[in-house]
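Bumping with the actual sequence this time:
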Amino acid sequence: MDHMGDGLEGMTTARDIVKQASIEAPGAMISRYDSGKEENGYLADALNVRTREMKAGMLRLKHTDIPEQSKTIVLGSLVEIENLADNDSEMYFVLPYGGGEFIEYDLTEIMVVTPDSPLFKAMVGKGVGEEFILNTRAEVKYKILDLQ
């Protein structure tokens, strides 16, 4: 939540700056060649949409019950998996919002995945020691090393 709150704060600040730039830019009546007013307006609108999405996602996170411990991968699981082709392991945190975000914890980078992601769909319901296959561009086999 802190990580996403920082991102929301930055997004809100950027939106306000661009909105003000749009207001202050010369309009078509002053300079028919300057499109800054319109372009900044479009950018401010897009940033406004993104801030609303982030607020809704954070509210969803706040009201999500994360289980204390589960023997299988569910919403709220912190999972370590190993790519069996190259023996490389990665950590994932399954949350309802924030897919693609990285959280650093104890010098470990953890990627947030959502229930809609192909990775979660491939590993949902599996437990420690089980293997699964993720079919994206190539078929890759993984093993679940740890589950919290």
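The tokens above came from a reply further down the thread. The chain has a mean pLDDT of 83.
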